[in-house]
Amino acid sequence: MAILVLGGAGYIGSHMVDRLVNEGQEKVVVVDSLVTGHRAAVHPDAVFYQGDLADQDFMRTVFKEHADIDAVIHFAAYSLVAESMADPLKYFDNNTAGMVKLLEVMHECGVRYIVFSSTAATYGIPEEIPILETTPQKPINPYGESKLMMETIMRWADQAYGIKYVPLRYFNVAGAKPDGSIGEDHGPETHLLPIVLQVAQGKREKIAIFGDDYNTPDGTNVRDYVHPFDLADAHLLAVEYLRNGNPSTAFNLGSSTGFSNLQIVEAARKVTGHPIPLEIADRRPGDPDTLIASSEKARAILGWQPKFDNIETIIQTAWAWHSSHPDGYNDR
Ligand code: UFG
């Protein structure tokens, strides 16, 4: 058997590919457009194709050349909340319409399983904390909406064509492979932790914290951080779950612990030994107050056991990557 990883040159996808190759159980095929991904992030033992998953002729060729692919792990999407508020159609085109094109080719080529990156952003302003998989999904930004639409499309594709799927709804992903060889490299960077670490590196003067008047203990947003290694474990377990004939279902993936933006800065000060100056800035549109997962379902059904449950350890791994790669992959 073989696994196709879409978006395998991206931040989370590259950790997945690394893990699959190191497992050594099956062939790993990677497709990435390299619009945001990095060729150098892809493990050299994976088979790599540069291309767009919405290009159906291209995808047919990949599935024909590797007829043993029975499962797809799909990371290839745009994922920035603020960008999606400014340019929603980019998200509905690439993320949502791309999913339709992908499922058409999977159906045609008889590929039966898909595990896909969904997001906490599908819940919008959640009706309960911690968030359960049954908590109503009411996104407040086009990014979350595009992912919710992808989940819906998969539900109907399962019913009609029997393509079994698992959406994994990640909370905030942070950290890197502990040896510092692969990590997060977005251009431009918009995520909290990498920007905080850029201040520690001396690449920025200070971090702007977006809003301190939210309904949270210190007024700044609270998020639940999960490490890409733990996500990779969950994806492997989800593929196995589908291959064992289990029904399609969604899982939240988070640590079940919330950290405010100020707490993240404080933890980064401890890890890096740098003062990391901050200023309070205006709220960023589209940010909910608090996002904390219940991941009990993933633990109970998939047997998922996240190992990176300490925020300082997560930050240490990110710091190992940023310190050894001050300019990221340096390929732009
Ligand atoms: N933040 C700042 N200053 C910055 C950058 C971010 O204060 O310079 C704040 C944000 O306002 C937010 C928090 O830090 O309160 C986290 O922001 P990120 O941009 O790091 O992450 P998001 O919570 O916006 O989004 C991430 C992923 C999404 C996913 C979401 C789920 O990018 O794909 O987590 O919680 F949906």
TrEMBL record:
<dbReference type="InterPro" id="IPR036291">
    <property type="entry name" value="NAD(P)-bd_dom_sf"/>
</dbReference>
<dbReference type="Pfam" id="PF01370">
    <property type="entry name" value="Epimerase"/>
</dbReference>
<keyword id="KW-0520">NAD</keyword>
<comment type="similarity">
    <text>Belongs to the NAD(P)-dependent epimerase/dehydratase family.</text>
</comment>
<dbReference type="InterPro" id="IPR005886">
    <property type="entry name" value="UDP_G4E"/>
</dbReference>
<feature type="domain" description="NAD-dependent epimerase/dehydratase">
    <location>
        <begin position="3"/>
        <end position="254"/>
    </location>
</feature>
<keyword id="KW-0299">Galactose metabolism</keyword>
<comment type="pathway">
    <text>Carbohydrate metabolism; galactose metabolism.</text>
</comment>
<comment type="subunit">
    <text>Homodimer.</text>
</comment>
<keyword id="KW-0119">Carbohydrate metabolism</keyword>
<dbReference type="InterPro" id="IPR001509">
    <property type="entry name" value="Epimerase_deHydtase"/>
</dbReference>
<keyword id="KW-0413">Isomerase</keyword>
<dbReference type="GO" id="GO:0003978">
    <property type="term" value="F:UDP-glucose 4-epimerase activity"/>
</dbReference>
<protein>
    <recommendedName>
        <fullName>UDP-glucose 4-epimerase</fullName>
        <ecNumber>5.1.3.2</ecNumber>
    </recommendedName>
</protein>
